Every structure is written in structure tokens, then in C-alpha cells.
Amino acid sequence: xxxxxxxxxxxxxxxxxxxxxxxxxxxxxxxxxxxxxxxxxxxxxxxxxxxxxxxxxxxxxxxxxxxxxxxxxxxxxxxxxxxxxxxxxxxxxxxxxxxxxxxxxxxxxxxxxxxxxxxxxxxxxxxxxxxxxxxxxxxxxxxxxxxxxxxxxxxxxxxxxxxxxxxxxxxxxxxxxxxxxxxxxxxxxxxxxxxxxxxxxxxxxxxxxxxxxxxx
Length: 216
Ligand SMILES: N[C@@H](CCC(=O)N[C@@H](CS)C(=O)NCC(=O)O)C(=O)O
Prior knowledge:
Radius of gyration: 17 Å
CATH topology of the largest domain: Glutathione S-transferase Yfyf (Class Pi), Chain A, domain 2
Shape: globular
Domain GST N-terminal: 7-86
Strand order of the largest sheet: 2-1-3-4
Protein name: Glutathione S-transferase family protein
Bound molecules: glutathione
Domain GST C-terminal: 89-216
InterPro entries: Glutathione-S-Trfase_C-like, Glutathione-S-Trfase_C_sf, Glutathione_S-Trfase, Glutathione_S-Trfase_N, Thioredoxin-like_sf
Largest sheet: 4 strands, mixed
Number of strands: 4
């Protein structure tokens, strides 16, 4: 059975955003059952956990053959097991993998920087000063993404692991309307989040925080 690590508790604002969600979503799309190894914020620092996830973060993954970390690498690994995530045709497969990298390298760093200024350090004077520029960079990247998605349901003709990773990255912008207020990106994200596999993954993450099953 596949095991993934996840936190047993995070603050309310982080619920539904923790990065094990993307792994749960990939597993749900692939139809692969999994269980969670819930850890707390002390256990993440233990030597045993550090051997599984060197940066003391979640998620980490173990399928009995491979133990690994980094959500991008994990969803690609799951993609290898399921055509629902990664097409077999080599060019389509390469394109889908490209979007996973684009989410992690071309979108996420800018979004993270904006979050540092607008959310995590919102009360600091330097953050107020830095925020407009951070927002400018994010808007530029989002405009490029919207250009690619214009008139398309999915990034590459059908849903792939690339959409999954891009959608997870866009969801981090839930604190502002840069995505939800965009006529292309807003509906795209809604389409992604409407997928039953996403709904099951989200419900499962939330349930692990409360110990109570939540409606999908
Ligand atoms: N690059 C890593 C980042 C993982 C990450 O940022 N995990 C966060 C939760 S979303 C975490 O564990 N934070 C706790 C900490 O850093 O101590 C990945 O994508 O797997």
C-alpha cells in the first residue's frame, strides 16, 4: 500500500493548501489507494523522518519500492503508473511533464514571494514596500499562463499531471483575486477543482486534521 506523510494539524488558513494535497489528488486521479502517515510538528524534526524527507516537510512518499520526497517528483512518479495523469505518447508526455516543471519553476517562486509579502509578513514594513513589485511579477506570469489557456479546457488538450500541478500552484493565490477574478484562469481553476478526484483528495486532507470524515 502506498503511504504518504501529512500533518495531523495545521492552522486554519493552511487547511486545504498543504502540499500532500497534490499527491493525494494524483493518487485519486490514478485510482491508487493510499494511507497517510500523520505526523506532528515535532515528529517532522526527528532523525527517522529526516531520513524520509531531508527538509523535515510534507509530503513524503513510500510505495514499498521507492521512498521519495518533493511533491513534483512524487506526482511525476505516480504519473508513470497511470495514463490518467501522463499520456503514453512521448511528445504529449513530455509536454505534460513540462507543465509540472513550469508550475514549480516559473509560477511557484513568484507566487511564494508574493505570499511572503502579502500573507506571511503582512505586518512588516519591508513587506508592504515589496508587495507591489511581487504582485507585478505574478501578474506577468499569470498573463502568460492565461494566454496559453485561452480557448482551451486544459493546458494540453486533456487533463494531465501538468494541469494538476499548475492548479495547485494557482490555489496558493486564494488570499487575493488574481486568479479567481481572471476570466480565463478563474474558470480553469474551477474546472480543475470540480474534478471528483480533487474533491476526494481535499476532503481526505481536511478529514485528517479533524479525525472526522468530511463530505467530498
Ligand atoms: N518543495 C517541497 C515543499 C514542501 C513544503 O513546503 N511543505 C510544507 C507544507 S506545504 C511543510 O512541510 N512545511 C513545514 C516546514 O517547512 O517546517 C515539496 O513540494 O514537496
